[in-house]
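Notes from hallway chat w/ T.B., transcribed later so I don't forget. T.B. wanted the structure written out for a chain they're using in a teaching module, and asked if we could keep both sequence and structure tokens in one place. Agreed to drop them here.
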Amino acid sequence: MTDQPDSNHNPLVGEARVTVRYPECDPAGVAHHSVFAVWMELARGELLRKEGYDGYRALTDSGIFFVVARSNILVRRAVLYEDELIVRTWVERSGRGK
């Protein structure tokens, strides 16, 4: 599995710019891994907006639900207080739930 989306193969990519906030960090100023999924959710919301959807409410009201079946996080270095990040998320494949 690649750590970057293939925009030629799958253009469904969302990005969110995040500045690490103090409450997301441990006493040493390192972002806690539990907030990574929150940041990924921000990027997923951006992906939906980019595709023309007005957030989750409009989708769920029309009976469309998104399920994250697998999530991978690649951390290349410690993420520190006030670091500015670009969090990228993408869809590798989609299908109909059963």
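Follow-up for T.B.: The chain has two helices and two strands. Might be a good example for the class.
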